[in-house]
Design goal:
With 120 residues, the protein is mainly β. Helix content is 0%, strand content 48%. The strands form 2 sheets. Strands 2, 4, 5, 6, 9, 10 and 11 form a 7-stranded mixed sheet that branches. A 4-stranded antiparallel sheet has the order 1-3-8-7, with no helix packed on it. The chain is globular, with a radius of gyration of 13 Å.
C-alpha cells in the first residue's frame, strides 16, 4: 500500500506561480507511474500531468503544457508540480495519484488533495 500526502496548495493571483508536492511512503512498484489530477467544482476530474519514474518520461494535458512541470526528487519519493503562469481556469482541487500505467497512470492510490485557487 502507498500513502500519498499533497501540500503546497494555496491562493495566488493570475500569472503567479505555485509548486505542489506529493510525498510518498516510499519508492515502490506502485509508484512507477505518478500523476497529478485536478477537479473543479461541478466538473469531472481530469488528468493534468504524468511522469514515469523509471524513464522520466512526462506527459501533459494541452491546457497546462508549457506552463506546468511535473518532476520527482532523486529518491523518487516526492512528486512535484511546478505551476507557472496560473490562470483562473486552473482553480481546482489537485490530487496526487500513483499506480497503474498509461497517459495519467490509473489512480490506484490517491492523496487527499490540495486546493489551488487563482484569482484575478
Amino acid at each position: 500500500q502507498v500513502q500519498l500526502v499533497e501540500s503546497g496548495g494555496g491562493s495566488v493571483q493570475a500569472g503567479g506561480s505555485l509548486r505542489l508536492s506529493c510525498a510518498t511512503s516510499r519508492n515502490t512498484y506502485d509508484t512507477r507511474c505518478m500523476a497529478w489530477y485536478r477537479q473543479a467544482p461541478g466538473k469531472e476530474r481530469e488528468g493534468v500531468a504524468r511522469i514515469y519514474s523509471g524513464s522520466g518520461s512526462t506527459y501533459y494535458a494541452d491546457s497546462v503544457r508549457g506552463r506546468f512541470t511535473i518532476s520527482q526528487d532523486n529518491a523518487k519519493t516526492t512528486l512535484y508540480l511546478q505551476m507557472n503562469g496560473l490562470k483562473l481556469e486552473d482553480t481546482a482541487m489537485y490530487y496526487c495519484a500513483a499506480g497503474g500505467y498509461g497517459t495519467y497512470c490509473s489512480g490506484v492510490y490517491w492523496g487527499q488533495g490540495t486546493q489551488v485557487t487563482v484569482s484575478s
